[in-house]
Amino acid sequence: xxEQNRNPDRDDVLFAFHQTCDNPTAExxxxxxxxxxQYADDIREHAALRVQWAxxxxxxxxxxxxxxxxxxxxxxLNLLHSARQEAAAQSDxxxxxxxxxxxxxxxxxxLARCVNIDRMVLAxxxxxxxxxxxxxxxxxxxxxxxxxxxxxxERTVSDLLTGPRRLGHAKADEAPxxxxxxxxxxIHASSMSEDEKRYWLGED
Length: 204
Known about the structure:
Helices cover about 60% and strands about 0% of the residues. The protein has helices at about 10-20, 25-35, 40-55, 65-95, 95-105, 110-115, 120-125, 135-145, 150-160, 185-190, 195-200. It is elongated, with a radius of gyration of 24 Å.
């Protein structure tokens, strides 16, 4: 097996993958793509081909008919789809809000200009002071521009809310207060026009 600490060439990785995984399963594909993320697409494509070859040779000596080929292709595509979904989910789950912004080339002011919303709204979200649920239009805009899933966005907003930045100033004899507002309250408190507020609230 290839040493993980020596940054192997693509061909070495694929050769080792073929030797180890004669008829690769989704679990094996996931394991290899985690070990060699730089070759993940190649590993998935080769795995799909191996599965198709295995399906085509299920009946030794027999010429594959159309239904056999279709079954092989379908199985290969299903495996490829499952592996890609798992890789995307893993990639999403490991990403923080700051990393998602950075990966897409944004900071809060640039993101606000891109989606055409008052930057204060995004600043409140970023600071962990906006409670779920977010408005549908903001959710759609952020998932589209940042290339993230709705589930990941909601999970991340929840994480931001539990972070230390959500605490206000402590009074002398009390614990710090939690200064959070609902999505609608943040929109209403922004400096946007009434038409813009209605738009982001889905009331237009």
